[in-house]
Amino acid sequence: MTGGLRVVVEADGGSRGNPGPAGYGAVVREAATGEILLERAESIGVATNNVAEYSGMIAGLQAAADLGAARVEVLMDSKLVVEQMNGRWQIKHPGLRPLAAQAATLVRRFDAVTFAWIPRARNVDADRLANEAMDAAAGKPARAARTAAPAARARPRDAPAAGDRDPRGTSDSGTAPDSGGSVDPAVVAGAGERLRLVLVRHGETELTRQRRYAGRTDATLTAYGRAQAKAVAARVAQLAGGRLDAVWTSPLSRCAATADALAAAAGGAVVHTEPDLVECDFGHWDGLTYAQVRERWADLHDRWLTSTEVAPPEGETFAEVGVRVRRAVARLRRAHPTGTVAVVSHVSPLKLVLRDALGATDALLHRLYLDPTGISVVDSWPDGGVAVRTVNDTAHVPPA
Question: Where in the sequence does UniProt note compositional bias of the Low complexity kind (predicted)?
Fold first, then answer.
């Protein structure tokens, strides 16, 4: 990687008794703003303080990797873990060596990782999560193994009932196969509390119809595009059972108009404008056809098609788009931990959301086609589980 997302990981862990009921917490912040992107916490059964602290650090590093971070600063109030990861102290306890090796493997996934000690007073968020996880391990009410940390709602209408098997492999007995450790009751109880994202590309514009690169140009919907928006709004309202918790949209007119139609059809859902959902900035390619771009920038276009780190002239790389799209999705998940939210955006941001949800490579970006007002559905759970239900459903689109 070059450039890319810079994050700060704050991690902590502990046990009630050392050894005793143990848990960890980790917070991932965007380095530039301090904004929390992800929170993770889990109870780990009976373990020592040091094992829990290492586990928190590993969870934080994994969360940073899941976000596609390039550079990571790890902050902990455990002097032992920080000094051992910096190579200044030997790892004498045999139980910590596999954990240190696991952390070292994760470290190699980033451009750069630093480890630094901070006083406990500066590690309050990770400490809070770790204490919640320890409470869960001790049998007290708490939320464990969570992402983005919100209070849980009641199980939604279509969540798995007792005896069902969900897409992440949790069985009807309440145990996860090959989990490698104890399963906390709070995790199993929270398995059905999903967030459903209904991803919708905007309706047709003149640039869409002419198959031109349409980035930041604020093209409006055609008459057919408005008909598409009306049709997709009815379909999304049906998928949501007549109620959306919210509609999040790119600020550009073609998305805003589509989002307004969705909100109206679903009983007046609140529309939230999210700047990070805007289309890729195609720079000098904006408004041009594929053939026109090939004629003028053939070599650059070839490189752009094979690397997310290459930008159009005066434009934006897909890697940069990916960073802000992940940031937007993280904000959305904090605001709406469960329920159903429609996301109205453009081809590039939606492909990046689907790439991440599918765990696919960058090759997906130029192989996946998303039609105007095509619908994709992604479910996610507080424990990190993801299920892609639908990709580019166009059954509702009216004939041209």
Answer: 136-153
Is residue 262 one of the residues assigned to a domain?
A: yes
**% of the chain surpassing 70 pLDDT:** 86
**Residue 83 annotated to the active site:** no
Query: Does 76 map to a domain?
Result: yes
In 166-267, which ranges are continuous DSSP H helix? 185-189, 206-209, 223-239, 253-265
Catalytic residue among 132, 202, 320, 346: 202
Any idea what DSSP says for residue 195? E
What DSSP string describes 37-102?
EEEEEEEEEEE-HHHHHHHHHHHHHHHHHHTTEEEEEEEES-HHHHHHHTTSS----TTTHHHHHH
CATH of the domain at 55: 3.30.420.10
Annotated binding residues, as ranges? 254
203 three-class SS: coil
Residues 71, 210, single domain; the answer is: no
- pLDDT over 70 (residue 296): yes
* Catalytic member of 279, 320, 336, 346: 279
Q: Are strands 271-273 and 339-345 parallel, antiparallel or unpaired?
A: unpaired
Q: Which residues are annotated as a binding site for substrate?
A: 254
Q: What is the mean pLDDT of the chain?
A: 85
Closest CA to 170 of 391, 389, 387, 390: 387
User: Among this protein's residues, is 279 annotated catalytic?
Assistant: yes
The answer on 297 and 212 residing in a single domain is yes
Residue 141 lies in a domain: yes
Question: pLDDT digits over 57-90, tens only?
Answer: 999 999 999 999 999 999 999 999 999 999 889 8
Q: What is the pLDDT of residues 177-188, one digit of tens each?
A: 222 333 232 222
